[in-house]
Structures are given as structure tokens and as C-alpha cells.
Fold this protein.
Amino acid sequence: MLAYALKRLGLALLVALAVSAASFVLLRISGDVALAIAGEGARAEDVDLVRRTYGLDRPLIVQYGEWLARTLTGDFGQSLYFKTSVAGLIGDKIGATVILAFASLTLALAVALPLGVLSALFPNTWIDRLSLTIAVLGQALPNFFFALALVMVFSVKLRWLPVSGSDTWAHFVLPAISLGLYITPPFMRLIRAGMIEALASDYVRTARAKGLSPLSVVVKHAMRNALAPVVALAGVQFGFLLGGSIVIETIFALDGLGYLAYESITHKDFPVTQAVLMILSVVYVLLTLATDLVNAWLDPRLRTG
Amino acid sequence: MSLLDVERLTVDLATPQGTLHAVRGVSFAVDRGETLCLVGESGCGKSMTSLALMDLLPKAASRRAVRLSFGGVELGDLSPARMNDLRGNRIAMIFQEPMTALNPAYTIGDQMTEGFRRHKRVGRAQAEARAVDLLGRVGIASARERLGQYPHQLSGGLRQRVMIATALMCGPDLLIADEPTTALDVTIQAQILRLLGELAEEFGLALVLITHDLGVVARIATRVAVMYAGEIVETGAAADLFAAPRHPYTQGLLDCIPVPGRTPRGSRLGAIPGVVPSLVGALKGCAFRSRCRFARPDCETDIPWRVDARGHGARCVLA
């Protein structure tokens, strides 16, 4: 198990390095940093001066090496637009995004796990049809629409919850429900399909033939095997939630990373864009690593692979 | 009364095409120390019969019987919870596919002991000691290490030995083995069969062995029941049945296997022409008549069961 974990970690580091190089190059292709610093309409001499001052005239590989070395020490540079340190900026915003992602994922699993298992145990009954309805709604409703509907009912009409901001836990309830419902359907369908397959398997028949309790048959024998793909999906979805909650963060004026990424791109704030990209990709890689390790723990056959 | 006494067992399956009569009024009995072989082609209802005994039929299937008594208890009257107390405890079962019958996520030790710990309410150490003992009995070396291994680390033959040892954990009275050697290499098949035979004798088990392989039957059966299209067409002591088969289907099955010294070299082995009739809807008369070379008009009527003084019976107008 330790050898497997080390091998996976090495692979993860390589992937993170490749992503950082690719994103560095892509960003440099997308626009001129010197021009962004000097400002639109600056004179050619000024732009040239900026280019030399910041060392942007050197070969790309040298600049990348320098950026990587600084980044590894935690120094992400200064934001061109906000005029503060990028690290501080991200530190301020990442908390809201992580809380939102975590709350949405927990909510989605809390709904999907029992409903998925129950609809697998009782297919084509009312409970199965109820979960199918939720799945179709969650998948078909655009999440901004559902978010706005929630605001209308719970904030405007009933006045139970705040409309926007990110100051207290109450500010996170509606955004988490909106995002949670959006990611619930794939979990529910995956759990249902996995459980139906596991319940029909030979090893579940063996467990029944041993006279084990129904709970042990379903939870210990069937669910353990149905969970592996769910863990993988949860890892990917968590990464998606960290980077992809821009719409929801905007609707609820939730001051998070997604909104920062959006702002930095519109303002050509290269250091911020680069740093957010880097952090999100490292988080993605780490999540994949964690997923692999949890799966190896769930399925012993993977440990030797 | 016998340990297991089955009278007119019926299993119906609901299918989109209509009700499929998978098992049509099967009767048999087994006692401790006896090995009953249920023989027949795929789809003749032998596996459905065994699952019906365990009350492990698929949801679409329903079971009826005039009598389904085990150790004097009528299984049909038991609540699901009481039946669950018997399963794996006094009635154990092993299956055809050792490759998939074990859960890939748990160790051999865990899977061997969980049933024992539930039924006998003992601790892990005691259960593991018994598991080690039984693994040794089914011929597995270094049993203690095997307990910590996972199914994928074991070969098919070893896994089937583990399944057998697991089935014996609670000291059952009845062991049902559904084609336990079919998925194994030929060389391993003989070992597993010999092992089953020895264990049945040593533990005083009643063994119900389901197979389509008459070679297997000849080796270990005390009594044989030949099934065709959901019913038993012939039954008797193994020696009687092999010496003088009375049903044309049994004769046909026996012609399909070569016997050293009796089958002439270079001659063609027998084959039964045609296919098994559909079991959806009502079936009247002998189900085998469409494939039988002795078929005659009165095969279409209900044929009575004819038994001789030695208990060798057959359902055939010629018997």
C-alpha cells in the first residue's frame, strides 16, 4: 500500500508540473503581459521599458523557471489590478469557495446515497420514481434559475435567509442547496446502478446463503463495492465545485475563488489568473491522488497494480 | 422421516412471455450420510430447485410445495428471519463460480468467519481458529496466512476449497453444491469431488449435488434424480440407475459419455436430437416425447410414476 501511494504521489507531481508549464505558456500566448502592465494605449517605448524592467524580454523557459522557483516558495507576485499580493488575495477568497464546495458535496451525497441505495433495493417503486424525478429536475434546471427561485422564496418572500454576501453560515445555505442539487443526479444514478449490479452479484448471493443479516448483505457486501466509482466522481466533482462555482458565486455575491478568476481574466491580471489556475490544478491533482488512495483502500485488487 | 423431505415442489417465474414453470412438482428426500445427485441439462430446473430450498430464489420467482421439511421443520412456514437463522448454519450452499462467489473487498478470513460469528455468537479468535482448522481439512497449506489474503490472490481451485470450508464452518446438516466443479480445470475437478465425498462422509452431511456431468454422479452419488424440463423423470440408487436406466432420456444421457472398455474405439458418441421444450405455459404428457425415438400416441397423456421394489422409479410409458 505504501509503495502504491508513493508511486501515485510521484505521478501526481509530474502531472502538476506539466499543467503549470502548459498554463504558463497558454497564458503568455493569450496576451502581452508588458502591455497589460503598461496599460492600453501606452507608448511603445514605455511598453518596451516595462518589458525590460520585468525581464519579460528573456526566453520563455527562463521566465517559467523563475516563476516556478518563486511559486514553490509561496510567492505568487503582485496583482496588477488589485495592487496587492496575489497570495493574500487568494488566501482571502479561497475559504468561501472551499466551504461552499464542501457544503454542496456533503448535501449532494446526503441526498444521493440513501435515495440511490433505496431505489436500487426497490426498483420501479414510488421511491425509485421520486429519486428519478429529483435527478431529472437537478439535471434539467439551469442552476442559476434554481438559485434565483430559491432566493425568491426563502429570501424575498419568507425572509428566512440572506440574499447575498458571505459573512455568516446562513449566507451559504442557498448557494450550497443550488450547487448541491446540480451535482446530485450523477451521484444518485451512479449509486443506483452500482448497487443494482452489486446486489445481483454472486458474492451477494453467497452472503445471503451464509444467512447474514439483510443490513450486512446490503451495506457490508454490496455497498462497499458500489462505492468505488462514487469516490472517484466525488473527487472530480469537488474539483469542479472549486473552479466552476463562478455563476453561483456571482448570483449570491459570494466572494470566492471562482469570482476572483473571472475578474482576473477580464482585467488581464496575469499573476492572479496564473496563480488561481495553478492552485486549482494542484487541488485537482491532489483530489485525484486522494481518490486513488481511497479506492485502493476500498478495492484490494488495485493495490498491487 | 428423512432430514430433507421435498414433496411436489413447484417454482414459477414471471416472465414477459408469461409464467415459466421452471420446476414442476419435484419430490425427493435425502438423509444424513447420503449424496443425492440432481442431474440434467442447463435449464432443466436443477439450480432453481436448490435456490428454492435455500429460499434464495430471484424476486420474479415464486415457490410452492406440498411439503418442504428439513429436520422436521416445515420451511414454507418459517418467517424470513427464522429461515435466515438456518441458512449458512444448518443448511449451507456452495456455488458454481468460485471466481465471483467471494467478495473481492474482504479477506478470506473475514468472509469465512462472518457467518460463523453471527450464527454461533463467538469471538474473532475462536472463529479464526475454526477457519484455520477447516482450511487445513480441505487441503489448504499455510492456512493461517490465507486468512489475511484477498480472493484475487487465490486460484479458482483454492477459492472453491475456501467456499467449501466456509460452508462447513457452522457444521451444517445439509450441504447443497450447485455445479461446484464445472468452472474448474479438469485436473482440479476430481480433487474437489473426492474432497466433497470424503467430507460428506466424515461430517455426516446430507449432500445435494447438482451437476450435468454423469461422470461426477457415478463417482459420488448414493441416489440420483434425473431432471428434464422442470421435473424428475427417473430416480433411484446410483448403481441401479447406471446398470439399468429406465427412461429414454437417462439412456440418452448415458450414451453421451464414453466408457473405457465398453464404448468401441472409433465409434461415434451418442447425442440427443432436438431441444428442450419451452416451459412457458402448460405442458401435458411427457416433456421429452418430441426428442424421444420411442415416442408413441399415449406419451401425450399424463404418465404415472412407476416405481419398482428397490425404489427405482421413472415416468415413462415404457418403464
Notes: Residues 4-90+173-281 of chain B form a domain with the Rossmann fold fold (CATH 3.40.50.300).
